[in-house]
C-alpha cells in the first residue's frame, strides 16, 4: 500500500486497487489554513492515518500554509492526530428537537416573509456582521450565496427574512435533508436587534415552516459549544445535544 494523490483535493491509500484510506483536504476561508477529514477502513484504523496525515501536512507546507484543522466525528478519532501536534480547538454540537415546536409569536413591528432575489445584499450584510471572523459562515461574497443557491436542496421560501420596515434585522435559513430531517442551516440577527426576541421569533418561524410546509418531524442545527447565548436560546426552544463533532488544530 502507498499514499497517492486523489483526483480530488486529498490523498488516498489503495489495497489491490480498492481505496482503504482517504484524507480530504480543503482550503479554509482563513488564509494559510487547511481542513482535513479522514476516513479509514475500520480493520485498518491505527495503521493508515499517519501516512495520510504526513502526506497532507507536507502538501500544506508546500502550499505555504501554516495551520491544519482536522475534524473528528467518532470517539478516539483524535488519537492518530496527537503525534503530529494537533490539539483540541473547537467543539461543534448538533442539536435536535421534535417538531412541531412552540407556536411562533410575533415581535411588534417585525414582519417575516420568504427570501426574494432582491434581498441578496441585505442578507449578506446581516450575515457578515453577525458572523464576522467565523470560519464557515463569515465573510460571504455574492459568489458564496450563489453557490448555495445552486445546491439541490436550495429553497428560497425556506429562508425566513425578518424586516423592520425596510431594514432586515435577521433571517433564518432552513434546509431539508433526504428523509425529511429539517435543519436551521443558518440563523443571524443584526447586532443592534439582539436581545429583543428577534432571534427566537425567526427560529420558531423557521421550525414552523419546516414542520407545517415541508413536513419535517424533527429539527436540527449546529452550534459552537462556546456560543453560550445561542445555546441558551436553543435549549429554551427544546433542543438537546444529539452529538458533538470536534476540531483539532496543528500549527505547522
Describe this structure in words.
With 252 residues, the protein is α+β, with helices and mostly antiparallel strands. The chain folds into two domains: 3-85, Aminopeptidase (3-Layer(aba) Sandwich), CATH 3.40.630; 95-245, Gcn5-related N-acetyltransferase (GNAT) (Aminopeptidase, 3-Layer(aba) Sandwich), CATH 3.40.630. The longest helix is centred in the C-terminal third of the chain and has 15 residues, at 198-212. The two termini are 27 Å apart. The protein has a twelve-stranded mixed beta sheet with strand order 1-2-3-4-5-12-6-11-10-9-8-7. It has helices at 49-62, 79-82, 120-130, 142-149, 198-212, 228-236, and strands spanning 3-5, 10-15, 18-27, 33-40, 67-72, 87-98, 110-114, 159-164, 167-176, 182-189, 218-224, 240-251.
Determine Rg (CA atoms, Å).
20 Å
Distance between the termini: 27 Å
Determine the CATH superfamily of the largest domain.
Gcn5-related N-acetyltransferase (GNAT)
Order of helices and strands: EEEEHEHEEHHEEEHEHE
CATH topology of the largest domain: Aminopeptidase
Please estimate the helix content.
Answer: 10-25%
Query: What kind of sheet is the major sheet?
Result: 12 strands, mixed
Q: What would you call the structural class?
A: alpha+beta
Strand content: 35-45%
CATH class of the largest domain: Alpha Beta
Give the strand tally. 12
Low-confidence stretches: none
Give the overall average pLDDT. 92
What is the domain total for the residues? 2
Can you summarize this structure?
With 252 residues, the chain is of the alpha+beta class.
Amino acid at each position: 500500500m502507498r499514499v497517492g494523490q486523489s483526483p480530488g483535493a486529498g490523498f488516498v491509500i489503495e489495497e489491490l486497487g480498492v481505496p482503504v484510506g482517504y484524507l480530504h483536504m480543503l482550503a479554509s476561508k482563513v488564509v494559510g489554513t487547511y481542513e482535513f477529514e479522514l476516513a479509514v477502513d475500520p480493520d485498518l484504523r491505527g495503521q493508515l492515518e499517519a501516512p495520510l496525515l504526513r502526506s497532507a501536512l507536507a502538501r500544506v507546507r508546500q502550499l505555504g500554509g501554516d495551520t491544519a484543522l482536522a475534524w473528528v466525528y467518532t470517539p478516539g478519532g483524535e488519537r492518530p492526530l496527537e503525534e503530529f501536534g494537533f490539539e483540541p480547538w473547537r467543539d461543534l454540537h448538533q442539536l435536535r428537537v421534535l417538531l412541531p415546536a412552540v407556536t411562533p409569536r410575533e415581535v411588534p413591528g417585525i414582519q417575516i416573509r420568504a427570501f426574494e432575489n432582491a434581498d441578496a445584499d441585505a442578507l449578506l450584510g446581516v450575515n457578515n456582521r453577525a458572523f464576522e471572523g467565523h470560519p464557515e459562515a463569515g465573510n460571504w461574497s455574492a459568489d458564496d450565496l450563489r453557490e448555495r443557491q445552486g445546491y439541490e436542496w436550495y429553497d428560497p421560501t425556506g429562508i425566513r427574512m425578518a424586516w423592520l420596515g425596510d431594514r432586515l434585522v435577521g433571517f433564518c435559513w432552513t434546509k431539508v435533508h433526504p428523509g425529511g430531517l429539517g435543519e436551521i442551516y443558518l440563523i443571524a440577527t443584526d447586532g443592534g436587534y439582539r436581545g429583543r426576541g428577534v432571534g427566537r421569533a425567526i427560529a420558531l418561524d423557521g421550525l414552523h415552516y419546516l414542520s407545517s410546509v415541508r413536513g419535517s418531524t424533527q429539527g436540527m442545527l449546529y452550534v459552537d459549544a462556546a456560543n453560550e447565548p445561542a445555546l441558551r436560546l436553543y435549549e429554551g426552544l427544546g433542543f438537546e445535544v444529539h452529538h458533538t463533532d470536534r476540531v483539532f488544530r496543528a500549527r505547522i
